[in-house]
Structures are given as C-alpha cells and as structure tokens.
Design brief:
The protein has 357 residues and is mostly beta strands. It has three domains: 115 residues, Cadherins (Immunoglobulin-like); 109 residues, Immunoglobulin-like (Sandwich); 102 residues, Immunoglobulin-like (Sandwich), CATH 2.60.40.60. The chain is 10% helix and 42% strand. The protein contains five helices and 26 strands. A five-stranded mixed sheet has the order 3-6-7-1-26. The longest helix has 14 residues. The radius of gyration is 27 Å and the shape is elongated.
C-alpha cells in the first residue's frame, strides 16, 4: 500500500506544479478540531474548488496530525500535537505536507510550525542526593549536583537553580558551550562534625515560562572526618570515535583520576552522572578502572554524538568530574526522514508566500 501511495505521489509531482506555499504557526497541545487556518482563503481558492478537485492532504508519513475540511476550506487539528514528542529539542519544529487537487492537477505546499508552550516543569531524575564530606574538606571544595531535565525549549526551558540558604555551601553554575549548565555546590565555610553532623538542603530548578514552573531535589550532607584531597581527572574532556556497528561490550575509552591521599581515602570510584537517561542506557563505566563500555547498539541515524559526564569519588566523599564525547562513524544508511525533512528539488515554488501567525 505504501508503495502505491508513493508511486501516486510521484506521478502527481511529474504532472503538476507547485502553485503556492503557505505557512502557519500554532502552539502545541491545541485541542482536536481546533482551527489552524482558512487554507482556501490563504491560497486564493474558492471553497467549491476544494470539493470539485477532491482536495486532500499528503503527509508522506504515517503521522497525521492535521486534516482538511473541504466544506469550510479550513485546516483543522486532527490529533493533539506534543512538540516534545514530535521534535524533541530540535527547533524550529514544523510539519510539512501537501494539499493536492485534481482536474486540473495542482499541488500546494503547507508548512505548520509548532511553537512550544510551557507544559513541562523541570524534573530531577535523582530527587535525593547524598554526600559524605569530611570536616577537613578545604574551603572551595566542589561537589557536583545532579541537573534537572526540562524538555521544553527556548525561554520555557530550564533557566536557573537555587539552593537553600546556608552558611556552609554556595551554589555555582558553570555554562557549557552547548548551553547546558554544570551545577556545583561549593564549600564556603569549614564543616564541624561536632557541631552539626548532618545538613539538609533543597535544590530548586526553575524554568523561564509564564508562569514559571519548578522542580526540587533534596540534598543531604553527612559530615565525616579527614580527607584532605579530592580526586583529579587527568583531563577535563575525553574524546573518542567509534563506528555505529561497534559490538556491545566494546571499551570506548578509559578515564583516569588520581587522589593524593593515602589509604582508603585514595580509593576512587567512577560513575556516570548528570547524563540523560537514554544516554546512560547506552553506556556503562567500570567503577574501578574507569573503562567506558558500550552497553547497547547505537545507530548513526538516531544520534551521531553522545556526551557523558563521569564523576570520580573517593571514600571521603570528595569528587571531580570530566566529560566524555563519543562521535560515531557512519557505516550504513537507512534513508530515514523526519518532521523537518527537505523536499525534492523537483518541486517548483513560486514567489507567493503567505505567513499566518
């Protein structure tokens, strides 16, 4: 059936011309049946022409979010659109489709941009963070906190963090080139186990929407004795490249940290932190030697680049972090497309352009 549809569409392209293109911009989550726009009016067509020409929509894929009402000459929401499910973090997010008419055969291209609404609050995947910190930890010691995740984009995405006011700790945010933030808790006043053995704090993540949405995580600090040196990675960024057909169990690279302390306080454990759940599922790390290992199959068409944050912790609770970037070799293609795909250069567009917002 799919082959027949594609063959028909190719025949349409060969016999028709693109008369015009029209663009719309709508927010996500509009109710089923909501009006997108008067396509007949915007294309300068009589509504009777839609009926006589058996006007219909061709999307090119199985996901049909929009329908054409010939009698009204209108485009309507057929299924509620979730921008995050449709496009993830890709912006702009748009649906591309064609309106086809017969007798004579005509083709109109339609682009519907889906704008973000603030329908997601920041969420901490790890809502309870526990630290064991020596009372001898020096002022300025840093402790990596888990980041929150907010699938919204633009101003609706996660913007800032706040930590419960405390004499001992301050919050520090480090902007990354990719726009993400590293969240650290900095010791600004020495700890005294005899005065306070445990400290309870709340980390709050806030987005930039209206109204602002937020999420919280609990931070629990247990004060220990004597650990003077934190682990230190040999590099802040490790880079590796692997083919997309690499086998499960492949050792991608090894990270390495050292600790100047002696005895049990020099023992280092490696773990993956501050990394999206779907990426964590793809990789694992040997907690003893720092080997980063491929855990699942990878696909160049789905992702060409992975970023993993690794934490090194000693038994006294001090930490350091590094970033591992993994780039894939392309070894095969499957011809997959997406919601923002480019169309054939065989389409002929006129200069007529209508923008409805």
């Amino acid at each position: 059936m799919d082959i027949l549809i594609k063959a028909f569409f190719n025949a349409v392209l060969s016999l028709s011309s693109v008369v015009a293109q029209v663009s719309y911009s709508i927010p996500e989550e509009m109710a089923k049946g909501s009006l997108i726009g008067n396509i007949a009016q915007d294309l300068g067509l009589d509504r009777k022409r839609l009926t006589s020409g058996k006007a219909r929509i061709f999307t090119g894929d199985s996901a049909e979010y929009i329908e054409l009402n010939r009698e009204r000459g209108a485009l309507l929401i057929k299924e509620k659109i979730d921008r995050e499910a449709l496009c993830g973090q890709t912006t702009p997010c748009a649906l591309h489709f064609q309106v086809i008419l017969e007798n004579p055969m005509e083709l109109y291209t339609v682009v519907v941009e889906i704008t973000d609404v603030n329908d997601n609050a920041p969420v901490f995947e790890k809502s309870d963070m526990k630290f064991k910190i020596s009372e001898s930890a020096v002022v300025g010691a840093k402790f990596l906190l888990e980041r929150a995740i907010d699938p919204d984009v633009g101003t609706n995405s996660l913007q800032s963090y706040f930590l419960t006011k405390t004499d001992n700790f301050a919050l520090k945010l480090k902007d990354q080139p990719d726009g993400e933030k590293i969240v650290e808790m900095i010791l600004q006043k020495p700890l005294d186990r005899e005065k306070q053995e445990e400290i309870f704090l709340v980390l709050t993540a806030v987005d930039g929407g209206e109204p602002k949405l937020s999420g919280t995580a609990q931070v629990r600090v247990t004060v220990l004795d004597a650990n003077d040196n934190a682990p230190v990675f040999s590099k802040t960024v490790y880079k590796a490249t692997i083919p997309e057909n690499a086998a499960k169990g492949t050792v991608i690279t090894r990270v390495s940290a050292s600790d100047a302390d002696k005895g049990s306080n020099s023992n280092i454990m490696y773990s993956i932190s501050n990394t999206a759940a779907d990426v964590r599922d793809m990789f694992e790390i040997n907690e003893l030697n720092g080997d980063l290992i491929l855990e699942n199959n990878i696909d160049y068409e789905k992702a060409r680049y992975y970023q993993i944050h690794v934490q090194a912790s000693d038994e006294g609770g001090l930490t350091d972090s590094c970033k591992v970037t993994v780039e894939l070799f392309h070894s095969r293609g499957n011809g997959k497309g997406g919601c923002n795909r480019e169309y054939s250069p065989g389409f002929r567009f006129t200069s007529r352009q209508i923008k409805i917002r």
